[in-house]
């Protein structure tokens, strides 16, 4: 990784964090309704019975209403638990029971299923700071989801969850950055071809 790419990513992440931090509660509430509606549409399109997702932090697009919908509909929800070795364990979640995990992010409470549990997923919803028109996802710099997606033998559809202004013309890419199949925003569902 060159210093230029590292610096570019760092600056872009800082800008995106600030945008998220300054959204009003009304903007977040309105966005949550659209995000949930569009996530439900994606899950139904793929007939997803097992969904791997995550518990959003306060500044991220809110995943909880979607997770509640999935659980209420009898779907299996897998939620990540960060490990110190940079991998993700998984647990079945209800979208509500949580604790503070590594790096201060919310994590589900439940039986640890191990890293290979994600192989059961029919759909994966991942966090992102931004996605570009090629489907390149920029995370927050820890690499958990890039490692997870890169290690899967058979990867189901992967959708990044972002706000509308976080689909950019281009994001800096490194060799380990796994592309996504689509992005879900409050107003649209975008699919990418690779």
From TrEMBL:
Instruction: Name the chemical reaction catalysed here.
Output: (6S)-5-formyl-5,6,7,8-tetrahydrofolate + ATP = (6R)-5,10-methenyltetrahydrofolate + ADP + phosphate
Protein origin, superkingdom: Bacteria
Q: Which residues form a coiled coil?
A: none
Kindly state a single biological-process term from the GO annotations of this entry: tetrahydrofolate interconversion
Q: What is its EC number?
A: 6.3.3.2
Record keyword Cell division present:
no
Report the Pfam families cross-referenced here.
5-FTHF_cyc-lig
- The answer, when asked if Acyltransferase is one of the entry's keywords, is no
| Keyword terms, alphabetized | ATP-binding, Ligase, Magnesium, Metal-binding, Nucleotide-binding
GO function terms (MF aspect): 5-formyltetrahydrofolate cyclo-ligase activity; ATP binding; metal ion binding
Q: Which InterPro entries match?
A: FTHF_cligase, FTHF_cligase-like_sf, NagB/RpiA_transferase-like
Necessary cofactors: Mg(2+)
Q: Which NCBIfam families match?
A: MTHFS_bact
Entry similarity comment: Belongs to the 5-formyltetrahydrofolate cyclo-ligase family.
The protein in question is named: 5-formyltetrahydrofolate cyclo-ligase
- Native source organism of the sequence: Cnuibacter physcomitrellae
